[in-house]
Write a structure and sequence with these properties.
The structure holds 3 protein chains of 3 kinds. Chain A is mostly helical. Helices cover 76% and strands 0% of the residues of chain A. In chain A, helix 3 (59-92) crosses helix 10, helix 4 (98-110) packs across helix 6 and helix 6 (133-158) packs across helix 8 (174-203). The longest helix of chain A is centred in the N-terminal third of the chain and has 34 residues, at 59-92. In chain A, 50% of the residues are buried. The model of chain A has no long low-confidence stretch (mean pLDDT 83). Chain C is mainly alpha-helical. Chain C is built from 13 helices and 4 strands. Chain C has helices at 2-6, 26-55, 74-81, 83-117, 120-131, 138-149, 160-165, 173-198, 201-209, 214-242, 246-251, 258-267, 271-294; strands spanning 10-11, 18-19, 58-60, 67-71. Classes of the chains: A mainly alpha, B alpha/beta, C mainly alpha. Chains A and C meet through helix 1, helix 3, helix 4, helix 5 and helix 6 of A and helix 1, strand 1, helix 2, helix 4 and helix 5 of C.
């Protein structure tokens, strides 16, 4: 396909403008975390690192960070396990109701979070189940499983089916086949799905709001509750910047894992 | 065929299951105060439970935690509706409920009567706050009074002459058009009713919470007109504070604590009690029927109405304290006088937030609009 | 022996039992054990949705204010016949469509440039660079845009835009649309990029050989082939935009979308009414999924 030089230039311009626009607000938050004043108004009043120095002392931030990490880790484990199983079941077997299950597997990410959150909360409250850490895990598990499943099933579809046959022909038990043939081929997709699930859970706020009990406060909830509170706002910008900086290498890692070929 | 019947069975099962469930509300009045449970979960208005994180000098929670060992977890309720919803979930131990929440909580069995013998500081509470229609039933106290105050009018001092009435909040050619801030809750309909009491006396409104259909429709019409000049419907107090600070709001209905905070950040604003009379609140701390930490809850109630703490919150929030001994302890010696702490006559003209019911609260023989309709009307107004 | 592995054992709906033919295999028994928790999750999730739909027909007790099991169509009638709510739903769909279109308008050229014009080295870097913000957090980005779009006034400073160019669209539906497009842009970019990568060069060469210019090739060859990817991407951006209520609260000013009214009803508290309102996004999404499914979206999810 031949494009005129002008066309190429225009596309290049669009791409880099988009790139700039995407990072501008994030850069703004980074800059504002060094603002000596406690506001998000522009221009910043002065330079100060005191928020960076003081934010580790904000107990609620530390607890929220710990809470989110714990929650995301559990959700990731559940997602990896159940998501992979779902992928295997849907990719390998034909059974009655398969189409319905495939459709249902899309729902948790296709339906708005508020619908999932309200539905789950209603169920928990009606059956008298305590709202707390487990109820949030259950909520997060729904979309985390779907995300891990998507990654694994995409990889499964790319694996040549005759590899398993060959392995069986050579005398391997189903377990050996899985351990020595299938798993090495899918493990990077499983990991990528797990990382994605971790990120989604860590970042999620809507379903969390509706399913968390009194004693649970995740980092997004903390940010939401404290962004409006002027004295805590500077620590919110610091936390936000920190989350950004930490997620960069993880994101890069996940991209590399997801891209790697099954060979 | 198989698909349909499987679905039908599933649906039937779901309906049956849905009909079961629903928590059991146990919880009678506490007879004896035991050991603290180590934590207490509160639902409170913003500014009522301060632990130093808003302002390091404003803290009446840390000493409570040190004394009783009860770690305080507070969930801010932005409106009475939100507080009722939170208490219905059964996840919290105590709530600072305004008059438009208390009776709903009592009727819904979400709170239990409070044994005032177990709360030593109750003795010092102003008599004018005890055993009122909104905090007691048949002489049984359902909570301890927290404090009371009026919803004020805030204005930007550089935007024009200081207003003394809420006319500019409602009239279509208001000089403040586009920069008006209104409280985002159905209970605000009462403020519109107060406006009509002054501007359309022929409607015959005597109590802004007792509105028959005609009066209610008139109030909604006033609110619909107001919609075109409103710049902000605030639910989070910090939203109004930020708007006052950056000047995008120059007139609004407010709480004194918001005015204080914004002024401290340089906003050129003042507050006033408008001439038409104001809505207000008289808040009550209540104990949940499903409280998991009842002893700590009682300890908190006793603490928040203790002279020192009550003085602290009354000054911070900008309201009249409930403990008579607090007046001697406020940093500003005139605080109680400014906020009319002991002035029953003043508060007789403040229309405390109350739940509107079908039986008119002013005793008329007609049918008044119940709160559920207030909610529907407000939702449609905001949609 | 190889054939036996490929036999599909019959599995019933719950996926619990494997009534396999021939002798039971330890692996399959393990399977059966593990699918139980999966089935439980499906039941809890789908059951919750069903329960929610049923609860829309419950009424509130006048006295206690709590939902009873007395059935009523009052909630459905309130949610579906009142003009104000229909207008709200229309506005929400309009915002969701606008955000989706904006995402597409920006993602298409960008994805094309990266997939077709950028050098191999920069390609990976650009993709990663544009996907990374997905990881920085929804709230961080929403508040960042609030910091950009906050309107100033003669009495005080606004946000970045107001400070830099003296004007900003302020808080409202425009800000909401811009923010939503900003938030979900990576979700539109990824599938389109993946689709472009899969596009065989030979097709484009053939089109050029037959005399079609770039725009014609784009319109008649690329776009139809990319339709499934675009459809898949739009599912995310449309759904996430439709039900959003937090962004509306952060940058929306007095604007309201369907998520806000659901939250309002829930906090009233009137859970049955909230459930009735959730029927709107549920119905809209089912319809949207059906349409996108026909466009081939599910092949690429």
């Amino acid at each position: 396909m031949q494009l005129s030089p002008l066309g190429r230039l225009a596309l290049r311009l669009v791409t880099y403008t988009v790139l700039g626009v995407v990072y501008l607000p994030l850069a703004l938050i980074f800059v504002l975390s060094f603002n000596s004043a406690k506001s998000i108004a522009w221009p910043p009043v002065g330079f100060s690192t005191r928020w960076w120095q003081g934010f580790l002392d904000v107990e609620s931030a530390r607890e929220a960070l710990f809470s989110s990490t714990r929650l995301a880790f559990v959700a990731m484990l559940i997602a990896i396990l159940l998501g992979s199983m779902l992928a295997f079941a849907l990719q390998r077997y034909e059974f009655y109701g398969k189409n319905i299950i495939s459709f249902l597997a899309v729902l948790p990410i296709a339906l708005p979070g508020i619908v999932t959150g309200v539905a789950l909360r209603n169920t928990f409250v009606r059956f008298g189940w305590d709202l707390g850490f487990l109820s949030v895990v259950a909520g997060h598990a729904t979309f985390c499983i779907v995300v891990a499943h998507n990654n694994v099933i995409a990889r499964l579809r790319r694996i040549a089916p005759n590899l398993r046959e060959a392995s069986a022909d050579l005398g391997a038990t189903p377990f050996q086949t899985f351990h020595l043939v299938t798993w090495p081929l899918i493990r990077s997709a499983v990991l990528a799905g797990g990382i994605l699930a971790f990120a989604l859970s860590f970042d999620e706020v809507v379903v969390t709001t509706f399913t968390a009990g009194a004693g649970v406060q995740t980092l997004p909830q903390w940010i939401l509750n404290n962004f409006s509170r002027p004295n805590v706002l500077p620590y919110v910008t610091v936390t936000a910047t920190l989350v950004m900086l930490v997620s960069l290498p993880i994101a890069w890692l996940a991209q590399r894992l997801g891209d790697s070929n099954p060979g | 065929m198989k698909k349909v019947s499987a679905l039908a069975v599933a649906l039937l099962g779901v309906v049956t299951l849905g009909a079961c469930g629903g928590g059991d509300d146990g919880g009678a009045m506490l007879e004896e105060l035991g050991e603290g449970e180590g934590a207490v979960n509160l639902v409170a208005w913003a500014g009522y439970v301060e632990d130093g994180s808003t302002d390091p000098n404003v803290d009446w929670v840390s000493d409570f935690e040190a004394e009783t060992g009860c770690e305080v977890n507070v969930k801010i309720g932005n409106s009475s509706d939100e507080m009722v919803e939170l208490m219905q979930s059964g996840e919290y131990d105590a709530v600072s409920a305004s008059g438009d929440a208390t009776l709903r909580l009592i009727a819904g069995d979400d709170v239990v009567p409070v044994n005032t013998d177990l709360i030593p500081n109750y003795a010092d509470v102003f008599e004018g706050l005890k055993n009122k229609p909104w905090n007691s039933v048949d002489g049984k106290a359902y909570g301890v009074p927290h404090g009371r105050g009026a919803n004020l009018l805030v204005y930007n001092t550089e935007a024009g002459a200081a207003p003394t009435s809420i006319v500019d909040m409602f009239s279509p050619d208001s000089p403040y058009a586009g920069k008006i801030s209104v409280y985002d809750s159905p209970i605000y309909i009462a403020d519109a009713a107060i406006y009509l009491m002054a501007t359309q006396p022929e409607l015959g409104i005597t109590n802004p919470y007792a509105l028959d259909q005609a009066q209610f429709d008139a109030a909604l019409a006033a609110l619909e007109t107001q919609k075109s000049i409103v710049g902000q419907y605030w639910a989070l107090y910090t939203d109004q504070q930020a708007a006052l600070e950056n000047g995008s709001v120059t007139l609004g209905t407010t709480w004194q604590v918001i005015v204080n905070l914004a002024k401290a950040n340089g906003a050129k604003i003042e507050s006033t009690l408008h001439s038409e009379g104001a809505t207000g609140w008289s808040d009550t701390w209540m104990v949940s029927s499903k409280a998991k930490h009842p002893n700590c809850a009682y300890m908190w109630l006793n603490h928040i109405i203790s002279p020192q703490a009550n003085a602290g919150v009354a000054e911070w929030f900008g309201e009249a304290p409930s403990n008579s001994k607090s007046c001697a302890l406020t940093a500003d010696p005139n605080h109680c006088a400014t906020f009319h702490a002991d002035d029953e006559d003043y508060f007789s003209k403040v229309y405390y937030w109350t739940t509107p019911t079908k039986e008119c609260l002013d005793g008329r023989d007609v049918e008044c609009v119940p709160y559920s309709e207030w909610v529907n009307a407000w939702n449609k107004l905001r949609a | 022996m190889g054939e036996r592995l490929e036999q599909a054992p019959r599995v019933n709906d719950s996926g619990r039992n494997f009534a396999g033919r021939g002798k039971p295999r330890p692996a399959f028994a393990l399977w059966g054990l593990l699918t139980a928790p999966l089935a439980w999750l499906v039941i809890v999730y789908v059951g919750s949705l069903a329960l929610l739909v049923v609860s829309a027909f419950f009424s509130l007790d006048d006295f206690t204010g709590k939902p009873t099991t007395e059935l009523t169509i009052g909630n459905i009638s309130e949610a579906f016949t009142q003009g104000e709510y229909i207008s709200l739903v229309v506005r929400s769909v309009a915002v969701a469509i606008a955000a989706t279109l904006l995402c597409f308008t920006l993602a298409m050229p960008t994805a094309f440039y990266i997939a077709r014009l950028a050098s191999r080295r920069t390609r990976r870097a650009l993709v990663v660079a544009l996907i990374l913000p997905l990881w920085t957090g929804y709230l961080v980005k929403a508040f960042a845009l609030r910091a950009v779009l906050a309107p100033g006034s003669e009495y005080g400073d606004g946000g970045f835009m107001s400070g830099l160019v003296g004007w900003s669209p302020g808080f409202g539906y425009v800000a909401v649309t811009l923010t939503l497009a900003y938030l979900w842009f990576p979700y539109m970019l990824l599938p389109i990029y993946a689709g472009l990568e899969r596009l065989p060069n030979s097709l484009l060469d053939a089109s050029a050989d037959l005399g079609a210019g770039s725009m014609r090739t784009f319109r008649l060859v690329m776009l139809p082939l990319l339709l499934p990817s675009i459809a898949a991407g739009s599912i995310f951006t449309f759904s996430l935009s439709l039900g959003d209520y937090i962004t509306v609260k952060i940058v929306g000013g007095t604007a309201q979308m369907i998520g806000n009214i659901i939250e309002r009803a829930l906090l009233a508290p009137n859970q049955p009414l909230a459930a009735a309102f959730t029927l709107w996004p549920m119905m809209i999404m089912v319809a949207y999924l059906a349409v996108m499914g026909r466009a081939g979206a599910f092949k690429n999810l």
